């Protein structure tokens, strides 16, 4: 008698404790109350459970009609009532571990393509919705119900609604990680301006991988070394993000901050006077620790000592004027002339940061006349 009751045994014992019942009546009550929504109890197993309870003297059976072939009616014995009370208290108080198969599926989900995982979870959500509707219909058909019965229904529907919310959140996260992040696509306001038309934009604080230098970018070896380190670390971060976090993205375009003691050096293309900060923006989930590891990898395995000069920090420009220039870098002068001496004065704008260029084309593979470059100038009003 010390062996604890299974959920099925406790359920059946409770039903015959309410009042004596035969097996078919038990099936009717179980079906009407929706008990199978929260307890595994098949029709054929009802008699098996009753037999086990009777062997333990927790229930007794009689045939009220006195015939050998009549239906057996089962009732709880005094010992059964004591065990029922003890088991009920324990069932209410104990927290038992659940073993949902969906967690096993998630643990093995890397073997499936991401879209299949999302589709399977959506199928599950549809089934959850069907079950929720069935429980609510069962309850509506029985109203009004006792408080403890209402609590049983509420427990089931609350769990199902919580699962719907969990599935919605999980699929949204999985869809986000399945889709390659691309700042050019996601922030078209910043990376897709109109050709030849100045526009004002508010540039937010963005995380950048940066490296500083000076001199003519066409001839200075330090410039080439800087770009090699910048790209090596940026791609190392991309691969680490995909492998460790399951988040892939398109490496952002190369950008450059350019300054000189005399701003006219850009219009006249006096490149030896230029100071530059070359940079590539990084996704918001990239951390300083990931950058440190990628820098170390580039410096040692790829033998790029310049990588140690890289820094990872946020950069905010705020109000800026930008325009898309199509053509050679050396043909930017007239555009900058109009920006500095026509558009900015006409709109009461002053310089508020270094000249900024964003290189949308690969100069190694693109004819100079087809190069697409965003020219951006941080400004202040008044």
Summarize it:
The chain is of the alpha+beta class.
Describe this structure in words.
The chain is α+β, with helices and mostly antiparallel strands and 382 residues long. It has 3 domains: 1-96, Arc Repressor Mutant, subunit A, CATH 1.10.10.10; 101-179; 185-381, Regulatory factor, effector binding domain (Multidrug-efflux Transporter 1 Regulator Bmrr, Chain A, Alpha-Beta Barrel). The protein is 48% helix and 18% strand. It contains 13 helices and 12 strands. It has helices spanning 7-18, 23-32, 43-55, 78-93, 101-107, 114-142, 147-178, 183-186, 188-191, 221-245, 264-267, 288-300, 333-346; strands spanning 21-22, 59-62, 73-76, 199-203, 206-214, 254-259, 275-281, 311-315, 318-326, 349-351, 355-359, 372-381. The strands form 2 sheets. Strands 4, 5, 6, 7, 8, 9, 10, 11 and 12 form a 9-stranded antiparallel β-sheet that branches. It has a 3-stranded antiparallel β-sheet with strand order 1-3-2. The longest helix is centred in the middle third of the chain and has 32 residues, at 147-178. The radius of gyration is 36 Å and the shape is elongated.
Known CATH architecture of the largest domain? Alpha-Beta Barrel
| Biggest beta sheet summary | 9 strands, antiparallel
* SSE class: alpha+beta
- Identify the quaternary structure here: single chain
| Alpha-carbon distance between the two ends | 90 Å
**Quick one: how many beta strands?**
12
Order of helices and strands: HEHHEEHHHHHHEEHEHEHEEHEEE
Q: What is the average per-residue confidence, as pLDDT, rounded to a whole number?
A: 90
């Amino acid at each position: 008698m010390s062996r604890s009751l299974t959920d099925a045994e406790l359920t059946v014992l409770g039903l015959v404790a309410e009042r004596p019942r035969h097996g078919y009546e038990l099936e009717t009550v179980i079906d009407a109350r929706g008990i199978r929504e929260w307890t595994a109890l098949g029709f054929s197993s009802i008699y098996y459970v009753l037999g086990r309870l009777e062997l333990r003297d927790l229930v007794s059976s009689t045939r009220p009609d006195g015939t050998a072939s009549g239906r057996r009616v089962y009732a709880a014995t005094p010992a059964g009532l004591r065990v029922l009370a003890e088991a009920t208290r324990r069932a209410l108080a104990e927290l038992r571990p659940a073993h949902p198969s969906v967690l096993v599926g998630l643990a093995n989900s890397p073997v499936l393509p991401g879209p299949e995982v999302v589709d399977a979870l959506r199928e599950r959500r549809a089934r959850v919705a069907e079950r929720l509707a069935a429980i609510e219909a069962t309850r509506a058909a029985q109203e009004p119900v006792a408080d403890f019965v209402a609590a049983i229904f509420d427990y089931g529907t609350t769990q199902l609604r919580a699962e719907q919310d969990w599935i919605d959140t999980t699929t949204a996260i999985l869809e986000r990680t399945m889709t390659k992040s691309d700042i050019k696509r996601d922030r078209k306001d910043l990376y897709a301006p109109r050709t030849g038309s100045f526009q004002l934009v508010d540039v937010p604080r963005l995380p950048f991988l940066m490296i500083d230098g000076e001199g003519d970018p066409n001839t200075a070896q330090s410039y080439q070394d800087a770009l090699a380190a910048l790209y090596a670390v940026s791609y190392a971060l991309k691969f680490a993000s995909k492998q460790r976090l399951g988040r892939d993205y398109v490496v952002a375009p190369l950008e450059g901050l350019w300054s000189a003691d005399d701003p006219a050096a850009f219009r006249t293309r006096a490149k030896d006077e230029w100071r530059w900060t070359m940079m590539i923006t990084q996704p918001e989930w990239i951390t300083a620790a990931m950058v440190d590891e990628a820098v170390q990898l580039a410096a040692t395995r790829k033998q790029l000592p310049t990588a140690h000069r890289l820094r990872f920090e946020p950069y905010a420009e705020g109000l800026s004027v930008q325009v898309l220039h199509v053509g050679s870098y050396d043909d930017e002068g007239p555009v900058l002339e109009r920006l500095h001496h026509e558009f900015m004065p006409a709109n009461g704008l002053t310089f508020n940061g270094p000249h900024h260029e964003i290189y949308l084309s690969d100069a190694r593979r693109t004819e100079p006349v087809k190069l697409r470059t965003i020219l951006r100038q941080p400004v202040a009003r008044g």
